[in-house]
């Protein structure tokens, strides 16, 4: 059927969850004349098989193309088919239903398909009621909880803002308070500094740590004490938070505060979903409000390489956009596209500067050796042509692993490591190294030769050798390497080279690495992955491989076991992560993080004794719901 004749055609795909990991669908149309000779294209969260009613024409991870034995479709006609998720995956909520459907006609033209899911309550909401904290209560509703709070029972009206005493020798403290003023202004929660505000005095105490501060809040004014710009900044952030969550009248008392951990991070996956640059800047602002200080930027994965690099320009030019006829098809709801984008070096510099003003460092990640499907579509020379391993990743990608036995692979990894680390002044580079498919390298002649030359026996040994060698190269650049927990595997002890390891499956691998001397950041999925659904409700969005991650779960853990206090020096912090498989638009990020991001703020800053329990974090979240709303952070977006 000609595309022009289909101008008034309305195609609909009704879909719902059934038993035994199955999803049922009915495809129907309203049109003047029947249509046929088409392919139905859409995406699921993971690979599926057809139970009945259709035939798989093509499948790339969760992107599926179906054809039908009798595909005639017109008014009064419908086609029913049923899919089943592979690998025991359970379609627990609305995220697991089909997304981004369209028909590709025989002549190459495209017809959109409207997906209509059954069983979804569009009024479903888990947004907490917005309320201001009570200044007469002795319990301080601040996130994160300070090390010490001694209330006096009095209150202070700061609704007009704070009048800054500029008489001290600045050394950066004025810049810190002015950065908080700019943060408040651009997020519509000002004024912070005001000529008619409450007097705010600064005193210096060289005995305090650089990021420590003290506040004395009295009816006649406030004194902020710090030894350096970081402490002044965090003290000012506390005052901004108090002004907002208490509605302008704050409790008086004394705060003595310093973070428990040096690494208090938030990660964002910009490969599965492209976030607009302004969204990243808004996230960094939110991090600053919660005293988080490390932004882990994940801009490349199986689905895309999004950062502009000169060493391999085809990466971002060809994989940044996905959809019909592109290197990366309409994965994760992209439909026929084009959907996506790339981040320029100029924006990377802007992001770094924006974060730096808020005492946040940016950690870039280049993902190797696995999670490289898009890279390998563009640069197949990074995989041995004689390799018949045919590994399939956990996400369903065939052959997504770079081969470290090839000189081309080393040219790629070293060039990328050098260029990317040169863009970011933090002098840390995350090298990935998670979820290598079990079959990877098992039928590679080049790998077998490498094993013989290097005395390696297993694929883990090969990976450990590779990460150690690459880690040494990164270190030679004056950059500290980092990687996911799997980088510690291998007979040689893994990556070594003073690398930081991120423990994500659970805390066990991180504890084992810390005992071996590695510096470790804890980011266990069951407590700190915001892409895991917060409940078992079908109306929610999110994954479920780690169970559920509720607001209570976000604080119901500690990075350091009580019976191993000696690990406190090796476990350097905690981090929240948001992987973007279920993200359809930027607002989903806000709803998936809030209010659970409050939990990682508490874990990273507060002591074990001061950390809130489930009831207390819920009370705090209700107060911060008011702050989220004030800055336009959306908490209830699921479509």
From TrEMBL:
Domain Glycoside hydrolase family 20 catalytic: 261-607
Gene Ontology molecular functions: beta-N-acetylhexosaminidase activity
One of the GO BP terms on file: glycosaminoglycan metabolic process
Keywords from the UniProt entry: Glycosidase, Hydrolase
Superkingdom per UniProt: Bacteria
GO CC terms in record: membrane
Name of protein: beta-N-acetylhexosaminidase
